[in-house]
């Protein structure tokens, strides 16, 4: 779909409205509540009045302007998700950064058509930085950008890779795949949330972003931004990220500044490996000693029986 200019302008209007709310609370004393989601690698996440008020404002504007459109939001759930056009909202992606005064959070706004992300906004209201991806192009503060413009690495061994935290990868398959990729890149970096994808799209040196356990609202807006800048963003198996594919991708995403890096990362992330239990050296040594003692005892018993 070619996204009409009025929808792109409206997405930026939503970002402006959310930013105005968030700035009222920026670096101010603010109560923080905890949301608990058992079964996730990081089961606790914070939420604030800023999150809730910013999303409520955006939802109000959508209902007024486009009452037939659906809405999926992190704080207030789903409304008309079966609609042809659905807005996906994350008022503050990176609430931990926000509540600790670090300006590397962002407001994420996506528009889906038939479940496919066709418009995405990453807005950082404190730094006044905004990425908008639509119609096959991405602009950063109104200027067109390309992910590979600034000597993006072509090999994993030269790549800088971002993830929000190493704790977001579940034990077993996810942790093992991430660990292998972490060892293959030049330097793994942490703590940027959605901001890392903006850096990747801009060609600022964040060559690769790999994450897991994301909600639909955590990544839908990022896809048009990265793709519009000439990068690639898929699930760990190289499949497109859509509303319908979320149950399969399970929030495992990879973004890269060029095809070479993306292919190399997907090759590692999609491979299947056996899940071995972790064994420490002390326990291994103890096991060897006990095994030797048991073997000696068995030999003595065998020798006694032969006499």
From TrEMBL:
The species this protein was found in: Durusdinium trenchii
Name of the molecule in the record: histidinol-phosphatase
Phylogenetic classification of the source organism: Eukaryota, Sar, Alveolata, Dinophyceae, Suessiales
Enzyme Commission code(s) on record: 3.1.3.15
Pfam families the UniProt entry points to: Inositol_P
Pathways per UniProt: Amino-acid biosynthesis; L-histidine biosynthesis; L-histidine from 5-phospho-alpha-D-ribose 1-diphosphate: step 8/9
InterPro entries (alphabetical): His_9_proposed, Inositol_monoP_metal-BS, Inositol_monoP_superfamily, Inositol_monophosphatase-like
The protein's required cofactors: Mg(2+)
Catalytic activity: L-histidinol phosphate + H2O = L-histidinol + phosphate
């Amino acid at each position: 779909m070619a996204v009409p200019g009025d929808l792109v302008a409206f997405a930026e209007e939503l970002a402006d409205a959310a930013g105005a709310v968030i700035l009222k609370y920026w670096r101010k004393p603010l109560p923080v509540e905890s949301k608990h989601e058992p079964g996730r690698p990081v089961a606790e996440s914070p939420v604030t009045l800023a999150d809730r008020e910013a999303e409520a404002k955006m939802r109000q504007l959508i209902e007024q302007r486009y009452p037939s459109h659906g809405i999926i939001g992190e704080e207030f759930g789903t409304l008309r998700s079966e609609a042809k056009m659905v807005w996906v909202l994350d008022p503050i992606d990176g609430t931990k950064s926000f509540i600790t005064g670090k300006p590397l959070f962002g407001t994420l706004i996506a528009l889906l058509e038939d479940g496919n992300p066709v418009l995405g906004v990453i807005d950082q209201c404190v730094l006044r930085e905004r990425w908008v991806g639509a119609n096959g192009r991405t602009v950063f503060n109104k200027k067109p950008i390309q992910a590979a413009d600034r000597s993006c690495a072509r090999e994993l061994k030269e790549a800088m890779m971002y993830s929000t935290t190493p704790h977001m990868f579940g034990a077993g398959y996810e942790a093992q795949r991430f660990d292998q990729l972490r060892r293959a890149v030049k330097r793994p970096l942490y703590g940027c949330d959605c901001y890392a994808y903006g850096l990747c799209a801009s060609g600022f040196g964040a060559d690769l972003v790999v994450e897991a356990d994301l909600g639909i609202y955590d990544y839908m807006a990022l896809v048009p931004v990265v793709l519009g800048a000439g990068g690639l963003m898929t699930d760990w198996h190289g499949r497109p990220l859509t509303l319908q594919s979320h149950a399969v991708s399970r929030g495992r995403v990879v973004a890269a500044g060029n095809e070479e890096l993306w292919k190399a990362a997907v090759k590692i992330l999609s491979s299947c490996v056996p899940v071995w239990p972790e064994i420490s050296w002390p326990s291994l040594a103890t096991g060897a000693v006990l095994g030797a003692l048991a073997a000696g005892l068995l030999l003595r018993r065998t020798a006694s029986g032969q006499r």
